[in-house]
Amino acid sequence: MFFSLLSFLSCTEKINKNDDSSSGQDSLKIYLSLAEDDKLPLEYKIKYSERAYELVSNQTNDSLNRVNFFKVANRFYNNNHWNSFKRTVLVVLNRAQAAKDSVFIAKSYTYLGDYYSTRAISDSAYMFYFKAEKIYFQLKDNSNLATTRLSKAYLQYAEGDLLGSEKAVFNVLKVLDTQKNAEIVYESYNLLGAIYNDLEEYDKALEFHNKALSSVDSKVIPAEFQSKATSLNNIGYVYNSIKNYKRAKDFYEKALKEKNLKTDKPSLYAMLIDNLAYAKFKLLEKKDLPDMFYRSLKFRDSLKLTSGLISNKLHLSEFYAFNKDTAKAMKFSVESLRESKKMSNSRNVLQSLKQLALIDPKKASLYSEEYIRINDSLQKGERQMGDKFTRIEYETNEIKDQNSNLQEKNRALVYVFSICTLLGLFFYVYKTQQAKHRELLFKQEQQIANENIYNLMISQQNDIEMTRIKEKKRVAQELHDGVLGRMFGVRISMDSLDSMENMDQANAAQKRKKYLTELKHIEEDIREISHDLNREKSELINNFIAILNKLFENQQNTYDSNLITSFDPHIKWELVSNVVKINLYRIVQEALQNCNKYADANTITIDFKSEINYLILSISDDGKGFNTKRAKNGIGLHNIQYRAKECKGTVTIKSAKGEGTILLIKVPIDQKLNLKKNDI
Questions:
Q1: So where are the chain's domains?
Q2: 266-282 and 245-256 are packed helices; what angle lies between their axes, rounded to 10 degrees?
Q3: pTM of the predicted model, to two decimals?
Q4: What are the TPR repeat spans here (predicted)?
């Protein structure tokens, strides 16, 4: 390259504006200071940078910590220690993402773009610049947005995407405040001048280079950057491209007169010497030639500016070819070709091949073929790189859109989930209230049913009591009218025997025998009345069984199934509370109803058994049966369980498909204790 493109962004040192801010740790300050001390060997500066990195790594993840990480990254960058630079930037990026700090995330992306740019990995560099650009755009940080876009534009220019670079530069100028960002304005105009020169739009190239020159302000742009000399060199190069070597020479000479150029920017100084020598050569001025070429070559070699050395050697080759010194011309062309290939610099390779084809006509066809092949490959690569940059922007935007859509979907899912949760909660509360209401109604119905049964039992008890009273009257009448009258007659007759002194013994014995027979008859009558009284007591005790038998009689009269019932005679029904009797009656009634509805049974068996302290009710059938694990508790089973619970009892159901059903109710009854009380 014969012109200077970069003046700020291409500086090898990153400007660290935050280095003056104290981190609160003196050791960190010392390490950072030593890491940028140019008097120390490189290995020591890297060592101090590593120590600073260790200190910062142990700090809490806050904004000051992230600032310190960038300070350390700057030291690695300035010392060209690229792996450590990348490692440090990735760490601060992770910390910024954890803290959701968009400013530091964008800055990390910019640093990663710089890393990949220096490593000539253009697609990765472009991707990170583009990511940073998006964040700065959202933050409305126009200064950093412009800087990032300009870095992206330089990258596109370097890869031959001239139109893409032009567009990027104009996007930089759109967001700039020209007074506050004079250095970026200068860079933008400078780059546009270079772009239009490559596009062979020389008038525009001169226009923007002159704008760049006019924008130079020594108060804003430090003099050591030699911005004015850079623009003068670039204007001279445009005139060189249109073969106006006289004007080119004037600008080169003017640039070389800038103060401290050789010390401030030695690479630009060497370039101007070479460019001026070439202009003088084209003007056929022999003074100081080829010494100026060699002076520039020596200076560039000391600075290890390989690209500049190639340009120098091409100029020398052309100079010696013009002066018919084919050997030297070939020597410098071959060297430039070899070094260009070593650097993988396709543009310099093309220039070297073109020069060789002119110097060596015998091999001109071979050089031309290689020139055409490399040129086609270069153009194809430039097109592909331009397409790749476009694709990176598209894919990044697409990922962003997908993330936005995903966020919207997530929000929608949250809304739907919230609504469903509220509806579910409402439905649960509604069902709970409904269940409570049903339970209340059920309890009310149970209370009414219990009252009806109680009234029925009271009515039955009243009927029995009336019967008992009638029976007492009958017994009293029997005793009064029958037994007592007869006994009175016997007693009178017995008394008469004592008064019959003259009655013979035989006649008296016969009469006594007659009276004894009568007493036996009276004894039998009394025994019969006693048995009648015992039967009455039994009937009074067993009135609950009578009620159940009435239920069983209705069952047999109504349904075809065979009903078998049994009552353990050891059950002391008089000791069973009315609450238990009522609930047992209802359980039997409910069980019979379930058998009639669902079981389709031929035989139903109901047993009341007595165990120690327990009353066992067993109801079984030989019907269809059911799966107790899958069957839901219906209202019937619920009623049975509820009533057993009211008696402090337990319910056991045994059933299976086609094997009938057994229902066991176990109710606690402390019969021994009650019997003792009864005996007392």
A1: 410-541, 545-679
A2: 150
A3: 0.54
A4: 186-219, 229-262
Helices 182-198 and 162-174 pack at an angle, to 10 degrees, of: 160
Integer CA distances (angstroms), 547 to 64, 453, 471, 538, in order: 92, 10, 21, 14
Residue pLDDT, tens place only, 643-680: 888 888 999 989 888 889 999 999 998 755 444 444 43
**Strands of 614-621's sheet, edge to edge?**
562-567, 603-611, 614-621, 661-668, 650-655
The backbone region for 566, taken as left when phi is positive above 0, alpha when psi lies in -120 to 50, beta otherwise, is beta
* Per-residue pLDDT at 390: 60
How do residues 155-191 score in pLDDT, each as one tens digit?
888 877 888 888 888 888 888 765 567 888 888 899 9
Rounded distance, CA 32 to CA 50, Å? 10
Contact 222, 181 (CB under 8 A): no
Pick the CATH number of 545-679 from 3.40.50.10420, 3.30.565.10, 3.30.470.20, 3.40.390.10: 3.30.565.10
Q: Which amino acid is at 524?
A: E
Query: How far apart (Å, rounded) are the C-alpha atoms in residues 663 and 665?
Result: 7
Contact 287/253 with Cβ under 8 angstroms?
A: no
Burial class (CB in 10 A: 0-12, 13-18, 19+), 277: buried
Quote the DSSP letter at residue 160: T
Given a contact cutoff of 8 angstroms between Cβ atoms, the answer to whether 132 and 107 are in contact is: yes
Phi-psi region of 664 (alpha: psi -120 to 50; beta: other; left: phi over 0): beta
